[in-house]
Design goal:
Length: about 425
């Protein structure tokens, strides 16, 4: 895996070996590519991919200029290769109903393929936890699950915590100490123990940023999804984990909330609003510092992102690593190490600086860069990274998943394979 340098190949994800490409019949047709990944040794599998046309860094600038209606100044053009991205996927203009149909069809396909990868039928699935930054409707997760053929009795958990969504979903499904807060007093890890669960992130960010006037966001983000199957406590066991939130007061990465939220708490309670939508659907909505002009996203640029995520990100990983080391010591396994970290790919510089700062503290963790063909795909990022690393895992391995996102929200969890 490439942990010291970024990939430079601009080959489209759709052209890579093992990737299946289909056309979703929406508008003039939207290409969707996906790869199924399975590791029988650890009884874990899933699917990841993207939809829309593939744009390399050079072609992307023409697309951004077309959407902006003007030529970009040189200082507006990001050095995307140095940030770890060589291509990403965008869709053409669609009507709102077409967008809605597209994401339901795409989402359902990912759920079906992930279930089949685990050897399940969609009707066998007992819970779906999906991270999604900008949902098209309040019940979009339910509609996707229904379209996939998942039982209406299955638990649906929609998690809107920006790029942290899928890591949060996995954390909630595994950590028994992570009970929901607020009016919904439930412990998902206890409820889901031994059940067939799908966890992932689904991000139609091309649609999300289409109306944005932020040139950085238009260059950085793209479509992507990653969904894994697991049986909590059986195929995957929780070892250590922490969640953390630190509100982005300055709006360094301001994001519009396309979901209901009760507003900021005045008593210092969590900014994650937990609501029971119906008996089988729970929504976790993270409070965001929203753009003042009403646009989807406004960001301070690559260095602003580094400052926003680096210090707290290092802190949370450090705390989880210390918890993990204490656990290994108590179990008489002080020699045991974390095999690898599947980390959110916000950009290459953030991840490499995080890795270096941790190493300077004596915490040596491998954080390979594996998402060059996708751009920043927000909540899908951690699950895609995880699936690309999955083939190398063996029974007994310990793996860390490191998620972080706008808001800001952090979820870091260490798991073990039986």
């Amino acid at each position: 895996m490439e942990s010291a340098q970024v990939m430079t190949s601009s080959v489209s994800f759709f052209d890579k070996p093992g990737v299946q490409v289909v056309e979703i019949p929406v508008g003039r047709g939207v290409p969707m590519g996906f790869e199924v990944v399975s590791n029988p040794l650890v009884r874990n599998a899933g699917v990841y991919g993207a939809w829309g046309e593939s744009y390399d860094n050079e072609r992307l600038m023409s697309l951004v200029e077309k959407r902006m209606g003007r030529t970009l100044a040189q200082e507006e053009k990001m050095d995307l290769a140095s940030l770890g991205f060589v291509s990403r996927h965008h869709i053409g203009q669609l009507t709102p109903p077409e967008h809605h149909k597209l994401e339901i069809e795409v989402g359902a396909r990912f759920l079906v393929e992930a279930a089949h990868a685990m050897g399940w039928e969609p009707g066998d699935v007992q819970a779906v936890l999906l991270g999604m930054s900008g949902p098209l409707s309040d019940d979009i997760s339910e509609q996707i699950a229904r379209r996939a053929g998942i039982s209406e009795k299955a638990l649906i958990v929609s998690i809107h915590k920006a790029c942290d969504g899928s890591a949060s979903a996995l954390h909630l499904s595994l950590n028994p100490a992570l009970a929901l807060k607020g009016s919904v007093q439930r412990n998902l890890a206890q409820e889901l123990l031994g059940k067939k669960v799908l966890v992932g992130g689904l991000e139609g960010l091309s649609r999300f940023i289409e109306s944005s006037h932020d040139t950085f966001a238009m260059q950085l983000f793209g479509n992507g999804a990653g969904v894994i199957g697991l049986i909590p406590g059986e195929t995957m066991q929780f070892l250590a984990g922490r969640e953390h939130e630190a509100f982005d007061e300055q709006g360094v990465l301001a994001v519009r909330m396309y979901y209901p939220h009760a507003g900021r708490s005045a008593n210092g309670a969590s900014n994650v609003d937990v609501q029971l939508v119906n008996p089988n659907h729970i929504r976790l909505a993270g409070l965001m510092n929203e753009p003042t002009d009403g646009s989807p996203v406004v960001m301070a640029g690559p260095m602003g992102m580094v400052k926003l995520f680096l210090r707290t990100g290092v802190q949370v990983v450090r705390e989880v690593y210390q918890d993990y080391r204490a656990l290994m010591q108590s179990q008489g396994r002080p020699e045991k190490q974390i095999r690898v970290v599947a980390v959110h790919h916000a950009n290459f510089k953030i991840n490499k600086l995080k890795q270096k700062q941790l190493q300077d503290e004596g915490i040596v963790l491998e954080m390979p860069w594996v998402l060059s063909e996708f751009g920043n795909v927000s909540a899908a990022s951690c699950m895609i990274a995880y699936l690309r690393l999955l083939p190398q895992f063996n029974p007994g391995d310990h793996v860390m998943i490191d998620g972080f996102g706008a808001g800001t929200y952090y979820d870091v969890v260490v798991v073990q394979y039986r």
